[in-house]
C-alpha cells in the first residue's frame, strides 16, 4: 500500500544507503531527493557521522536547514526554523565527548584494554583508517557526545569492556569499521522518537515515518519507523528487525543510492 508524501518524514542512514559505500556517489538518489524537496518532505540524515560532517553533507545534498541525527543518536540537530525550541540549535543527549574520553582512558589504564580511539590519532592516520580525505577526517574528529574506537583485544575482554561501560551509563555500538561509545540516553531509536515528538507537536499526529538503512547497526533506526527499507548491503550479517512483515519492510535488490531510490519507489510509487 503506497504511503502518502503529504504526511511523510524520511529518516535515512548515510554510508552504504544514501551514499555509495565505496565511491561515495549519490547520483542514483538525486531524482528522488528532488521530488521529496518539491513535496516539502523532510529528509533526516541519521548516522554515526559528526554534526560537522552532516552539516557539510546536507549542503551537498540540498538538505540545508533540515534536522539530522549525528553520532548514532547522541546529537540531534533541530530544524533551522525551530529557533523558538528550548534545545535549539542542537540537543546533546547525556555525557559529553570529553567525559566519555576520560572514562575510556581510565578503563584502559586500569584493565589494559587494547583499543585506539579517534582522539588518540591525527587526521592523517584517521584518513588512512577510514578512506576519508584529511579534510573530512578532521571533521570526523569533532565529536561532541561520543567517542569512536578500533578494538584490538579479545572477545572476552570486549565483553568485560562492554559491561564496564554499562556500569557507567554508556553503551557500545558496532559500526562498519569502528566501535562507538555513547551515553545510554543516546541511540538512533531514542533520537528518532524524540525528534518525531517535536515534529508532531508542530505538524500534527498524522505523520508517517519511512526509514532506510543497509547494515545491522541500522536496526534501531528501522525498528523506530513506521515503514522500513533495508537497502542491500555488504555486511556478512543480516539486518534483523523486530517487526519484519512485507507490509512494513522492503528489502532492495540494488545497493546504495540505487537501492535507496528503489525503496522509495516501492512505498511511494510515482507521487
From TrEMBL:
GO terms for biological process: mannosylglycerate biosynthetic process. CDD domains: HAD_Pase. Keywords: Hydrolase, Magnesium, Metal-binding. It comes from the Bacteria. One of its GO terms (cellular component) is cytosol. One of its GO terms (molecular function) is magnesium ion binding. Pfam families: Hydrolase_3. Transmembrane segments: none annotated. PANTHER family: HAD SUPERFAMILY HYDROLASE-LIKE, TYPE 3, PHOSPHOSERINE PHOSPHATASE. This is Mannosyl-3-phosphoglycerate phosphatase-related protein. It comes from Siccibacter turicensis. The lineage of its organism: Bacteria, Pseudomonadati, Pseudomonadota, Gammaproteobacteria, Enterobacterales.
Amino acid at each position: 500500500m503506497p504511503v502518502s508524501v503529504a504526511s511523510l518524514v524520511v529518516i535515512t542512514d548515510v554510508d552504504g544507503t544514501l551514499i555509495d559505500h565505496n565511491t561515495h556517489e549519490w547520483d542514483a538518489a538525486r531524482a528522488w531527493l528532488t521530488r521529496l524537496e518539491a513535496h516539502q518532505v523532510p529528509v533526516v540524515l541519521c548516522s554515526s557521522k559528526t554534526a560537522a560532517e552532516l552539516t557539510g553533507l546536507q549542503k551537498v545534498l540540498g538538505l540545508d536547514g533540515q534536522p539530522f541525527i549525528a553520532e548514532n543518536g547522541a546529537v540531534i540537530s533541530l530544524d533551522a526554523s525551530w529557533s523558538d525550541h528550548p534545545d535549539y540549535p542542537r540537543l546533546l543527549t547525556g555525557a559529553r565527548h570529553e567525559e566519555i574520553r576520560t572514562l575510556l582512558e581510565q578503563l584502559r589504564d586500569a584493565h589494559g584494554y587494547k583499543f585506539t580511539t579517534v582522539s588518540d590519532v591525527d587526521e592523517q592516520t584517521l584518513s588512512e583508517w577510514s578512506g576519508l580525505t584529511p579534510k573530512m577526517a578532521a571533521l570526523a574528529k569533532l565529536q561532541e557526545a561520543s567517542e569512536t574506537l578500533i578494538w584490538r583485544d579479545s572477545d572476552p575482554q570486549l565483553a568485560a569492556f562492554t559491561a564496564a561501560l554499562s556500569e557507567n551509563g554508556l553503551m557500545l555500538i558496532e559500526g562498519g569499521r569502528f566501535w562507538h561509545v555513547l551515553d545510554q540516553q543516546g541511540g538512533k531509536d531514542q533520537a528518532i522518537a524524540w525528534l518525531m515528538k517535536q515534529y508532531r507537536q508542530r505538524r500534527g499526529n498524522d505523520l508517517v515515518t519511512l526509514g532506510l538503512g543497509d547494515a545491522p547497526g541500522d536496526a534501531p533506526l528501522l525498528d523506530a519507523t513506521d515503514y522500513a527499507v533495508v537497502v542491500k548491503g555488504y555486511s556478512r550479517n543480516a539486518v534483523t528487525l523486530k517487526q519484519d512483515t512485507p507490509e512494513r519492510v522492503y528489502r532492495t535488490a540494488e545497493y546504495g543510492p540505487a537501492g535507496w531510490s528503489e525503496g522509495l519507489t516501492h512505498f511511494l510509487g510515482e507521487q
